[in-house]
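hey so i finally got around to running the thing on that chain from the lab meeting. sorry it took forever, my laptop kept dying and i had to restart like 3 times. anyway pasting the input first so we r on the same page abt which one it is
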Amino acid sequence: MEPIRTKIPNTEYQTPNTEYRTPNTESPMIKFFRIIRQQLLSDNKVSKYLLYALGEIVLVIIGILLALQINDWSTNQQHKKEEKRILQSIKTDVTNDTLQLSKNIANAKNRIAQIDTVYIALNHPEQFSSGQFLQYAYALASSQQFNVNSGTFDESLSSGFLKYIENDQLRQNIFEYYRKAKIQSIDKYAVQQNYDVVFPVMFKKLSTTKDFFEGFIRQPTQFKPIDIKSLSTDIEFVAAVNQRFASEKTQISYWGGFLKTSKQLIREIDEELNK
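ok and heres what got predicted. didnt touch it at all, straight out
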């Protein structure tokens, strides 16, 4: 009796064909040139192949040069756009400077008018009450200074973007404008003189009077009213008034000159923007 033979199935693992094939992404133009090269080589036309190869190199060089030209043009357009933005922002800042300077000049002229009245009162004390005199003398304790709007300039300077202003003379004028504006020697001197000379005298001579306490502090006091006649011969007080008057005159002159500079810079910026 034959033994029973069982057929064992083939369980050997068959590795699937997973070979990766790179998709053909060759452009029609490259494929065209490749076919020409192969045809020239197969026909043993070496001279024509070399001529073709040289022409292909020239085309590649021309393509690179065109790409560089386009890139330079794009970069130049970006720089011009940034230059326009910077100039427009600086123009806005300088315009605000002109408004501030004009306001400062107008306020200073009003203070000078009040100081003139103080002089008149010192010469004719009988024509003014002590309360009136204090109102006019209040101008002696007021002062202003010019604070340049330099936000755009400072930002562009720190970022290096000021180099995008192609007009060398205009760029230099902008630098000079902000250099002078930030020195503020006239304003700093005037403010310092107010704190060191004028204010101490005003408080000493006027703040301990009946008119000051009742008019500003709103409190009763036993202090005497302002003695205008006595102040007219007080060398310390008259010197303080003279100092305040001179400071106002000097500041008006300085602000007026800088106002002209500001307007001139605005005109130069407009000319550059309109090119």
